[in-house]
Amino acid sequence: MDLFSDIPKKQTKALSVTELVRKMKRAVESGVGKLWIEGEVSNLKKQASGHWYFSLKDEGSQIQCAMFSARNREGSETLEDGTKARIFADATVYEARGQLQVIVQKAERSGQGDLQARFEALKRKLHAEGLFDSERKKSFPSFPRTIGIVTSPTGAALQDILNILNRRAPWAQPVLFPVRVQGKGNEREIANAIDKLNAPEKYGYPRCDLLIVGRGGGSLEDLWCFNEEIVARSIAASRIPIISAVGHEIDFTIADFVADLRAPTPSAAAELAVPDVAELRSTLENAGKRIARSLTNSLREPTQRLDLARSALHDGTESGIRSNEQLCRELSLRHKALHPRKILERRLEKTTALNRILHQLVNRQLSDHSRRLERLETMIRTLGPDSAFKRGFSITMNEKGKIIRSARETQPGTLLKTKLIDGEVSSTVR
Q1: Which DSSP symbol is given to 227?
Q2: Distance CA 240, CA 198 (A)
Q3: Which residue in 206, 159, 151, 194 sits closest to 176, CA to CA?
Q4: Is there a contact between 318 and 418 (Cβ–Cβ < 8 Å)?
Q5: In whole angstroms, what is the distance from residue 306 CA to residue 316 CA?
Q6: Which stretch of DSSP H or E encloses residue 427?
Q7: CA of 258: how far to CAs of 27, 136, 230, 430, in Å?
Q8: Which of 197, 210, 200 is nearest to 165 (CA)?
Q9: Pairing assessment for the beta strands 99-112 and 62-67 based on DSSP bridges
Q10: What's the alpha-carbon Rg for the chain, to the nearest Å?
């Protein structure tokens, strides 16, 4: 038997790749055609064009699916990662890649996928144990100095968190514990990171005031590490308050329910973790103004009281002198042999002494209030914006005077004005 009898002779023309793929496409479309398929939806991607792409899988295999103009297709609302679905589709071959796929005409739900079922089962179990109870949620410090971050060192989520922490709270020190946040078995890395950050002296880490645990968005499979029981129990056992920041706003994981606070995105977690330094500066400035107004009003009141007392003393002194003079004249007329000048001199000396004592008391009170005012002015200068300018900070505003907090608020040609300690600098965004 000739083992090579089926090999075409050399002079037979070879097919091009395109011709081969087209032959396969015609064979699939004619041999398979339209049919119902059932499986679990995964890696669902909804494009801006309105076309959806996803995989349909079971225990043994998977196939790529495309649903064009998906929102106009019957049953499109049932397609979500992790759900089991029945789809009516045309089998074909995607020529550009030579890839077998099906074009979905309509879909319907056939039951929850395995991952979704596992998610719901664990959620019920931990809820029954009380791990979701609000009473066990820990409070967060108002001004955290050290913030632990458990996420991928290469993901965009880390950069988003660091950028916002640097902008809102430059005093805060981030501490990264790098972990893999996607793939089977990586849930142990996440749990291990949380456990070690809770025992920093033992493993040589700084003590953190709070932890941010999470990653960016993805499919149900991508986020599954944060749906594992080992991660949930490490979060629940943490003595450090934890913010869960997994995926996008529409994504929910078991970690979100167990954590002390759930953030819709990693960026939002950073905003929830620290106060905004600009808001703090504004609060301090307003407090300084209130203190200055209060001091001014308080100073005006004692000054007014002193003026009234001085006026009353002056009027009383003059009245007393006039009375004494009148008395002296009367005594002089009655007792010419006596010398009332001596009596008047003694009384004038006493009045002068009292006036001197009064001036001393008035000057002492004015001096005390002046020193107090100087101390308060020093505190205002120390806590006010001038102190921040001396440390190298500046304020950048647009031509309308609005403070620029992000580069996204500018565009080429925008006129900017930057206020420094010793003046202002004008610039144009290029």
Answers
A1: G
A2: 7
A3: 151
A4: no
A5: 15
A6: strand 423-428
A7: 53, 9, 12, 47
A8: 210
A9: parallel
A10: 41
Are 304 and 296 within 8 A, CB to CB? no
Which of 275, 325, 48 lies closest to 147 in space, CA to CA?
275
Q: What is d(CA 145, CA 279) in angstroms, rounded to the nearest whole number?
A: 17
Question: Which two three-digit tokens encode residue 74?
Answer: 């019957």
Q: Which two tokens stand for residue 265?
A: 């995105």
d(CA 256, CA 249): 11
DSSP type of residue 339: -
Q: Tell me how many degrees the CA angle 335-341-346 measures, rounded to the nearest 5.
A: 125
DSSP for residue 207? P
pTM as predicted = 0.50
Nearest Cα neighbor of 298 from 368, 358, 360 is: 368
* CB-side neighbour CA atoms (13 Å) of 135: 3
What 3-state DSSP class applies to 60? Answer: coil
- The answer to whether residues 392 and 400 touch, using CB atoms and an 8 Å cutoff, is no
Place of tokens 């981030």: 174
Residue type, 201: E
How would you write the pLDDT of the chain (430 residues) with one tens digit per residue?
A: 454 455 555 557 889 999 999 999 999 999 898 889 999 999 999 999 999 999 999 888 999 999 999 988 888 888 888 888 889 999 999 999 999 999 999 988 775 567 777 888 999 999 999 999 999 999 999 999 999 999 999 989 999 999 999 999 999 999 999 999 988 889 999 999 999 999 999 999 999 999 999 999 887 778 899 999 999 999 999 999 999 999 888 788 999 999 999 999 999 999 999 997 777 777 777 777 788 777 777 777 777 777 777 778 878 888 888 888 888 877 777 666 556 677 788 888 888 888 889 888 888 888 888 888 888 877 777 776 677 777 778 889 988 888 888 888 888 988 999 888 888 899 998 8
DSSP 8-state class, residue 8: P
Give the CATH class of 17-112: mainly beta
The fold of 117-135+143-275 is Rossmann fold (3.40.50)
356 DSSP assignment: H
**Residue at 390: amino acid letter:** K
Q: Count the Cβ atoms, other than its own, within 10 Å of residue 195.
A: 13
Distances in whole angstroms, Cα of residue 304 to Cα of each of 74, 137, 370, 390:
83, 55, 15, 38
How many C-beta neighbours within 10 Å does residue 173 have? 14
Q: With contact defined as beta carbons under 8 Å apart, do 62 and 55 qualify? A: yes
